[in-house]
Amino acid sequence: MQLDMHFYGVYALARAAGIKSETAQTIAYASQFVDDSIDDKAVLVSNRKAILPTMTSHKPLDYMNAMPGDQWKVWVPFHFLPGNMPKNGDFVRRMTCRKNSAPAKKMIEDSLDAVNEKYWPHIVGITAHVFADTFSHFGFVGFAHERNKAIRGSIKASKKHSSNIRRYIKSKFDDFKTRFMGNFAEIVPVGHGSVGTYPDRPYLEWSYKYETGRHPKGDTERDNTLNFFNGCKELYSYFARFAQLSPDDREPNGAVQWNNISQTVKSILRTEGPKEDRIKQWKTHITAGDFCLDVTSFDRDIEYVKGLWRPSRADYESGGERNIEQTDSCRFIRAAWRHREYVLHELLPDIGLIVY
Q1: Does 266 fall in a domain?
Q2: pLDDT tens across 30-57, in order?
Q3: Number of domains in the chain
Q4: pLDDT in tens, 177-221
Q5: Which residues pair with 222 in a beta bridge?
Q6: Is there a domain that residue 207 lies in?
Q7: pTM higher than 0.85 for the full model?
Q8: CA–CA separation, 257 and 315 (whole Å)
Q9: Is residue 261 one of the residues assigned to a domain?
């Protein structure tokens, strides 16, 4: 998924589920920042401390994508959560991401246990990102493996889309191959790199074939709108549970029922073209009050400003004060560290995928 879903969609769903606008913005920013948190160097700050970032993503051509250990620290816990299906399958099949899987549901439960942590909205946002990605990244594994490779000539958008849209998608894929794939994706087949951004476009119906292995038909013939819609419904339920557990973050005017927003959500997801078009749709419906009972200044001004939570900005954000630990930058780092440790040192060992 991309910015339109991870930030604007998450914000809208959080508001509809009954979360205050300020908290919803924090959750949404944390959700999107999972894709943008690429810093790995310690930052010295004015209060004689250092900030040690927790990386949650890499640039497509970052050499660290080729490092097996780093794939486990970044792609597995944050973008391709193992689905453990079937339980009697081989290791790689169990490590393959699966939508709304049992491990994903356990991850949800763990995040809701962080009730007393000051970074709770941040961990909820990170969890929302990982959970949402299971509805688009399923069928791929978060480390380099032949099983991720798709036959290039087999990747096709459905003819239900107009010829203009099919040409647009094809041109974007060709551009992606030129800039990011080529030999690199062949040498380091991590995640869905071999199919570009096809899984991330919510309106797309498409198909492809893998080079190796036996894969379910549901992996190779995909209806992104249906998958994204089901993901949105699950996210709404997740956020509603958070709102019930955290009275201080609960919208006083209450929630908007799912049935009252479902068709709007589906309509936005079906919007064909660049993600900017869907972002505009999300923002229009948010400011119109379709996702909340009382439109606030946060709703009217909702905008993702890239880089606000980078570690290098934490000192500025705190004003050079000693409470730098309370900045969103540091809270996100702490939440990301907690999430990674939980997935790698509790969740995966508990289901027998890692031995400790």
Answers
A1: yes
A2: 999 999 999 988 988 876 788 999 999 9
A3: 1
A4: 666 555 444 444 667 778 888 999 999 999 999 988 778 888 999
A5: 206
A6: yes
A7: yes
A8: 41
A9: yes
